[in-house]
Structures are given as structure tokens and as C-alpha cells.
Amino acid sequence: MAVAIRLARGGSKKRPYYRVVVTDSRNSRDGRFIEKVGTYNPLLAKDSPERVKLDADRISHWLSVGAQPTDRVARFLDAAGLKERAARSNPNKGKPGEKATERAEERATKAAEAAEAAAAAAAAPAPAEEPAAEEPAAEEAPAAEATTEEVSAPTQPEPAEGSDEAAPAEGAEKAE
Q1: What are the φ/ψ torsions at residue 117 (nearest 5 degrees)?
Q2: What distance, in Å, lies between the first and last C-alpha atoms of the chain?
Q3: Rounded to whole angstroms, how far apart are CA atoms 58 and 71?
């Protein structure tokens, strides 16, 4: 029989309260257990002595006969000095995934291209910009005159001679 020291959840909805129990590992989380060896109340402050209570004698007995604590219970036991928890080493934990790495490379490439284009634009066309700046000013004056002429022109297009649209317009004038 594989014996585990784990948490069994109690309490109401959104108000968790856990018992530290010794149980057969095949039993359900909140099901039958062999012995209750402590409690854990996550709602209390981290420095509160009431947050984690453990029966050290019974836990050391169960550890001596081969009971295996879960990761969370192993943290509690390490903090209480009952069992040394092995340090975990996962060097790839903080590294981004393959797709994120590809997106970062694409962003870096686009930023480098934009910086090169901006540097090339700032270096080469500096003398060419001055004459270009004078030309639009000269073009603006005729454009302003054209807009005033457009405003004075009739807003409705005149129909071409011999078209069907011209006949009703003439008939409307005759009726008046």
C-alpha cells in the first residue's frame, strides 16, 4: 500500500480549510484517510502561527515507515524542520517558448530595418528637402484659387443635350 501525506480540503465555498492527512494514495482527495496529522488555513496571514499546525511526532513516524508527502506538504515539513526538501532546478522555466522567440526576432528585425531606413532618410535627403519645401508653397496659391472657382460653379451637373434627363427638366420649366 502506497501511503501519502497530503491535504484534504474542507471549509465552504471560497473559504478553504485543509487537513494534513495520512492516506492511501489511491483514495480520493477528500475521502477516507488513516490519520489526521495537522491543519492548514490559507486565509490566515503568512506569519501567523495558526496557519500551519503539524503533529511532528506522528509525521516523523509516518515518514519513517515510507509515507511520501506531496509537494505542498513537503514545503510545510521543510519549514517545520521535519524533512529536508530537495531543491528543484528547472533552468528552462523562465525562457519563452518557440513561437514567442520567433515573434521577438521578427520585432527586432523590423525595428532594425526601421532604424536603418530612418538613418538613411535623415542622412541623404537633408539638402534635397529645402527645395522641396519651397515648391508646395508655390503650388498652394493656385490650388486656393481653384477651390474658390469650384464653389461659385453650379453644384448640379448640367445634362448633355439630347439626353433623357434634359427632357423632364424642360417640361418642368414649361409647366411653371
Answers
A1: -65, -40
A2: 109
A3: 19
pTM of the model: 0.51
Q: Which H or E run includes 7?
A: strand 3-12
List alpha helices for 56-125, DSSP H: 56-64, 71-80, 98-123
Residue range 76-109, pLDDT digits in tens: 999 999 888 887 788 888 888 999 999 999 999 9
At 141, is the pLDDT very low, low, confident or very high (cuts 50, 70, 90)? low
Q: Tell me if 35 sits within 8 A of 58, measured CB to CB.
A: yes
Question: 17, 27, 28, 87: which is closest to 53 by C-alpha?
Answer: 17
Q: Domains in the chain, ordered, with CATH?
A: 3-80 (3.30.1320.10)
Percent of the chain with pLDDT over 90: 51
> Residue 27's Cα: distance from chain center in Å?
38
**Beta strands across the sheet bearing 68-69:** 52-54, 35-40, 15-24, 3-12, 68-69
**Phi/psi of residue 5, nearest 5 degrees:** -110, 115
SS3 71: helix
Other C-beta atoms lying within 10 Å of the C-beta of residue 23:
21
Short-list 1, 84, 2, 70, CA closest to 40:
70
Q: What is the pLDDT of residue 155?
A: 60
